[in-house]
Amino acid sequence: MGFITNIVFQQITFFLLFVSINGNPICAELNESELRQMLAGYSPNALTLGISTGSQSTPSNTSCPILYGAGAPQSVRSTCPWYNVENTDYTRYPQTLLEARCYDCDNCITELPPSGLHAVWECERVLSRVWVLQINYSSCINGIYQYNAVQIDLPTACVCGRPRKT
């Protein structure tokens, strides 16, 4: 009987250690399906805007692409071309979003000679308000970390704009 009692005691001790470390309960994060459902309650299209589906990195050459080849995407053909990079934050859902960065054009691209760049108009990023879920590691309820829905400004493109008036 003592042997079985010892095994049960060890299992209970292991379970308590697993459930609690230093008196703090161990929490779990919500799974992908639960996070999707939670985020959809704030914005039905939140998951379509800017989520990375493949690896994106800064191009090796970010100089202004005045010339481009056939089949170039809109982001390169634009008067203010841009490329996307991954913006990753492991405390946020979705963890990885695509962020637009303008190519290194001093001014907007035009068809005007001599340089092909507008003398005054400048490129600037378009910011879109996007809902994300921010995990709160200091709040654990019933073994689940709590999430806060917040809006962030996500750069989604670059546009040509006249200078701001001061």
UniProtKB/TrEMBL annotation:
Subcellular localization: Secreted
Q: Cross-referenced InterPro entries, in alphabetical order?
A: Cystine-knot_cytokine, IL-17_fam
Q: Which UniProt keywords apply?
A: Secreted, Signal
Q: What is its main location?
A: secreted
- Check the UniProt entry and state the signal peptide residues, or none: 1-23
**Pfam families attached to this UniProt entry:** IL17
Q: Which domain of life is it from?
A: Eukaryota
- Which family is it part of? Belongs to the IL-17 family.
- The protein's name is Interleukin 17-like protein-like
Q: Which organism is it from?
A: Saccoglossus kowalevskii (Acorn worm)
Protein's gene: LOC102806931
